[in-house]
Amino acid sequence: xxxxxxxxxxxxxxxxxxxxxxxxxxxxxxxxxxxxxxxxxxxxxxxxxxxxxxxxxxxxxxxxxxxxxxxxxxxxxxxxxxxxxxxxxxxxxxxxxxxxxxxxxxxxxxxxxxxxxxxxxxxxxxxxxxxxxxxxxxxxxxxxxxxxxxxxxx
Length: 154
Fold this sequence. Notes:
By secondary structure, this protein is mostly helical. Helix content is 82%, strand content 0%. The chain has one domain (2-150). It has helices at residues 2-5, 14-17, 19-38, 41-71, 76-112, 121-150. Helix 3 (19-38) runs antiparallel to helix 4 (41-71), helix 4 runs antiparallel to helix 5 (76-112) and helix 5 runs antiparallel to helix 6.
C-alpha cells in the first residue's frame, strides 16, 4: 500500500501553499483585535509575527500561482477569473507589507509618547485597520481562487 504513494506527485504547489497565508492572516486579525482592546505588547508581537509569515506565504502563493496559471489555460472557470485573482493576490501582498509597516509605525509612535502607558488607542486602531484591509484582500483572493477551483456557473 505504501509503495502506491510514490506513484503520485503534486504537479503544482499553489493549492498547497495558499492555505498558509489565509490561515495566518485570519488569526492575525484576531490577535490584532485583542491588542486593540488589551494593549499588551505580547499581542502586538504575535500579530507582527503572524503578518510577517503571512507575507512570506502570500509571496510563495503569488509565485506558485504564476506557474499554475500556465498549466491551467483553457479551463473556463480559470480563464474567467485568473486575471482578477492574480491582481487581488498582488494587492494582498502589498497590503500585507503595508500592514507590517503600519504595525511598526503604530508601535514606534506609541513608544515615543511617554506621557501615556502603553500604546495609545489611536495607534492601535490604525494597526488594526491596516491588518483588516490586508486580511480582507487575502480572503477575497482566496474566495476567487475557490470559485476558480470549485465553482460552477449557477
